[in-house]
């Protein structure tokens, strides 16, 4: 069975300000290697899905950055949404693109901004998920075994195991980002996994679910997958789709949703405290991507876009980020509020 991939490469670029901006969100940043997270996502599919069968969905603000990041990628396989319609429309658009090429194909949905180092293990899970999606006529989601009671992630509640396929379980329900106490109760119960936003299905199965639970999107997919229709009118039709999330439109109502437990490393790198895990650390807990001179300072996170030396004296638990036109200084325990700060900035710095 041919496998296609839809990589979702939108995002607001708020949590990594001032390095990230509206036109330069997390997936376009070189945070943990010499390649952007988007480049890493595409490279992770090498040997599994050829570039000709990968479509990247972004938006008009970020299209230029995506194309610059992927200079050797097929240009016609990068699509920019003309308007923001949320994830149900984005997924429907990707399905239509695939269905216009192969209406019986398998399809993988991937975020563009995650860190996964174990490529071979990742590809094995995707192959296993494709096999399960075909044999069970099911929607497969990839679940990550929680490393902590993280309140910033969505969770998947697992039910009974599926016979004959280790690591595959029925999904009882999806749980939105919980508070800390509820997240800790999930960990104690043991049958919850982090929701990584990765899905696998066949085109006929997902189209059936859209037709049942969100028929307007199902009609869009059917119309756009007819010969020549996608190229002629996808933008006009897309802009008229309802604004709703894919989870709400389909996944919470679908008849057969299964979760396959991941056997690879995974990191959402949701903000500066998370990406600090990939920087060198000194004896006082300071981490930095650049030269660092410290005196009576500890547990600080420092990032300098130009690699300049930064000196810290008598400060603790700070995030210090310097770019060519802005500097961020904040307490590391307030990192989740950076997006609120961005909203107060001059338009040119957002």
What does this 3D model show about the protein?
The chain is of the alpha/beta class and 350 residues long. It has two domains: 3-261, Spore Coat Polysaccharide Biosynthesis Protein SpsA, Chain A (Alpha-Beta Complex), CATH 3.90.550; 272-349, no CATH class. It contains eleven helices and 15 strands. It has helices spanning 37-43, 63-69, 86-99, 119-136, 180-189, 203-213, 215-224, 229-238, 246-251, 272-275, 338-342; strands at 3-8, 54-59, 78-81, 106-111, 139-144, 155-161, 168-175, 192-202, 257-261, 287-288, 292-295, 301-304, 310-313, 318-322, 327-331. The chain has a five-stranded mixed β-barrel. It has a four-stranded mixed β-sheet with strand order 10-12-14-15, with no helix packed on it. Strands 11-13 form a two-stranded parallel sheet. α1 links the parallel β1 (3-8) and β2 (54-59). The radius of gyration is 21 Å and the shape is globular.
């Amino acid at each position: 069975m041919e496998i296609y991939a839809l990589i979702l490469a939108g995002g607001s670029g708020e949590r990594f300000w001032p390095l990230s901006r509206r036109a330069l969100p997390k997936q376009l940043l070189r945070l943990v290697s010499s390649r952007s997270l988007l480049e890493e996502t595409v490279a992770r599919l090498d040997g599994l899905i050829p570039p000709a069968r990968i479509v990247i969905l972004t938006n008009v603000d970020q299209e230029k950055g995506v194309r610059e990041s992927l200079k050797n990628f097929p240009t016609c396989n990068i699509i920019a949404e003309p308007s923001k319609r949320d994830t149900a429309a984005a997924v429907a658009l990707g399905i239509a693109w695939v269905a216009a090429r192969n209406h019986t194909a398998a399809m993988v949905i991937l975020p563009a901004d995650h860190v996964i180092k174990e490529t071979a293990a990742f590809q094995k899970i995707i192959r296993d998920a494709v096999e399960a999606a075909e044999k069970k006529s099911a929607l497969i989601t990839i679940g990550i075994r929680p490393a902590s009671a993280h309140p910033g992630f969505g969770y998947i509640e697992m039910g009974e195991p599926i016979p004959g396929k280790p690591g595959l379980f029925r999904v009882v329900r999806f749980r939105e980002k919980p508070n800390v106490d509820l997240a800790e109760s999930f960990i104690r119960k043991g049958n919850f996994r982090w929701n990584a936003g990765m899905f696998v299905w066949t085109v006929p199965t997902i189209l059936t679910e859209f037709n049942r639970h969100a028929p307007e999107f199902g009609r869009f997919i059917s119309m756009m997958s007819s010969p020549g229709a996608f190229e002629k009118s996808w933008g006009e039709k897309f802009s008229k789709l309802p604004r709703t999330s894919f989870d709400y439109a389909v996944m919470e109502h679908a008849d057969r949703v299964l979760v396959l437990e991941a056997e690879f490393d995974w990191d959402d790198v949701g903000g500066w405290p998370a990406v600090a895990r990939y920087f060198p650390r000194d004896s006082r807990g300071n981490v930095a991507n650049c030269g660092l001179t410290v005196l009576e300072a500890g547990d600080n996170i420092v990032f300098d876009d130009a690699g300049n030396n930064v000196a810290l004296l008598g400060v603790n638990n700070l995030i210090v980020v310097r770019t060519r036109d802005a500097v961020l200084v904040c307490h590391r325990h307030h990192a989740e509020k950076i997006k609120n700060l961005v909203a107060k900035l001059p338009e040119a710095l957002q």
